[in-house]
Design goal:
Mean pLDDT: 95
Helix content: 25-40%
Bound molecules: pyridoxal-5'-phosphate
Radius of gyration: 21 Å
Strand content: 5-15%
Structural class: alpha/beta
Strand order of the largest sheet: 2-8-7-6-5-3-4
Low-confidence stretches: 287-294
Largest sheet: 7 strands, mixed
Number of strands: 13
Length: about 425
């Protein structure tokens, strides 16, 4: 329902200066554009003067405040608490950092479970850590026809010695949103931890890490209109039990001890602005959304506004995705991968007889930005027989509109009908 209800896509698009170049930005799954408010927040941090943490002067205090505000913002985005928000340069770096720390308590005979649906950043760090610890790796398999990751298989995969289950909240290739809550429940039965990759899910749906059962939830701000900085969110009580490698003089406190070196203060200011931007997309929710719209937007907490907004975003993107899928279905030579019942608005497809790169080049020449390749969904693409070229990915985010979709479909019609 582009432009309908309380989700005003034209108003949203006007907030993004990069969209003025007239391209159809369908590459959001690889990184979104940023609104003026984020650009301004980053510039304002530098203009206002920032210093390193712990100094005696005002600029140092401003950085302290920026970090605290960013922790609170990310906590509001995913339903965590600020003391459980760990920052890092990327979700991949955080996964390696946490895998390294957690695996120190693993011993031979233990096992972990990873999935073949996941981005490699939630696979390889765990496999490599397991290799060092002498721990067995079990694989959860997606159904290659439907794209579903059946939760029931975890009943067999998780055993008494399982220490960790790593699973994605949404596939960055075929969009599948597995039943993470059910998978986490299987993990928790013998006391294993559940590490959830929320990088692809966070821009598309309201997130509640408690409801998901995520012991760790990773998210990257550059996928939701923010700068290139990431967070892993956990309960502070859990973080207290984990000791990563760290420098001797750096803080032993949680979450600080997980953060290596100096934080990117200006980017963190931008991260907060990005959460505020999401919270303002449709703070009253969309028509028909289950979120209460009784209280005025201003009187509601940012967490409430985030939930209302993301509920509206999900409804908006879902309607636009239906248009995209309908159009693809009408193109004889398009081969679409995955048709999971619950999925992020991300289409992964080939045009028969053409390489993904050639399709992407054809579309780029028409001002349509799509990705080609495996998108690091390496195990999935291997299982689908798509390595090394992968396929074409067109992903929607909240600033895409019907004209973006129609331009993609028009461009494809020239080569795929
Ligand atoms: C689902 C998913 N997980 C993890 C990552 C890696 O994120 P980062 O670039 O922050 O390491 C990506 C990036 O594309 C992703 O889509």
């Amino acid at each position: 329902m582009p432009g309908s209800g309380s989700f005003d896509v034209a108003a949203v698009r006007a907030l993004y200066p990069a969209l003025a170049d007239g391209h159809a930005y369908l590459d959001g799954a690889a990184g979104t554009q940023v609104p003026d408010s984020v650009i301004e927040a980053i510039a304002a941090a530098y203009r206002g003067g920032i210093g390193n943490l712990g100094g005696t002067f005002a600029a140092s205090g401003r950085s302290v405040a920026i970090v605290a505000e960013a922790r609170a913002a990310v906590a509001d985005l995913v339903g965590g608490v600020p003391e459980g928000v760990v920052f890092g340069p990327s979700a991949t770096a955080l996964a390696y950092r946490i895998a390294d720390a957690l695996s120190r308590s693993w011993t031979a005979g233990d096992d972990i479970v990873v999935s073949r649906l996941d981005h490699d950043s939630n696979v390889r760090p765990w496999i490599q850590a397991a290799g060092r610890a002498g721990v067995t790796v079990q694989w959860a398999e997606p159904d290659l026809v439907t794209g579903e990751l059946p939760a029931a298989q975890y009943a067999e995969l998780v055993g008494p010695r399982t220490r960790l289950v790593a699973v994605t909240a949404a596939s960055n290739a075929i969009g599948t949103r597995p039943d993470v809550a059910a998978i986490a429940a299987f993990a928790h039965a013998p006391g294993a931890l559940c590490y959830v990759d929320g990088v692809h899910a966070t821009p598309h749906v309201p997130v509640d890490i408690t409801a998901l059962g995520a012991d760790f939830y990773a998210t990257s701000a550059y996928k939701w209109s923010g700068p290139h900085v990431a967070a892993a969110v956990a309960a502070p009580e859990l973080l207290e039990t984990v000791w990563p490698d760290k420098l001797a003089p750096s803080s032993n406190a949680v979450p600080w001890r997980f953060e290596r070196g100096t934080l990117p203060f200006a980017d963190l200011a931008g991260m907060t602005a990005a959460v505020d931007h999401l919270a303002e997309l449709a703070p009253g929710g969309s028509a028909g959304a289950s979120v209460s719209v009784g209280a005025s937007a201003a009187a509601r907490t940012r967490r409430e506004r985030v939930l209302a907004s993301m509920t509206a975003v999900e409804a908006y993107e879902s309607a636009l995705f239906t248009r995209l899928l309908g159009g693809l279905a009408g193109l004889d030579r398009v081969i679409l991968y995955g048709k999971a019942a619950r999925r992020a608005p991300t289409a992964f497809f080939d045009v028969a007889g053409m390489s993904p790169r050639a399709v992407a080049e054809h579309l780029a020449a028409r001002g349509v930005n799509v990705w080609d390749g495996d998108n690091y969904a390496y195990e999935l693409c291997t299982a689908l027989g798509l390595e090394p070229d992968g396929a074409v990915r067109a992903g929607l985010v909240h600033y895409n509109d019907a004209s973006d979709v129609d331009r993609l479909l028009d461009g494809l019609a020239e080569i795929a009908r």
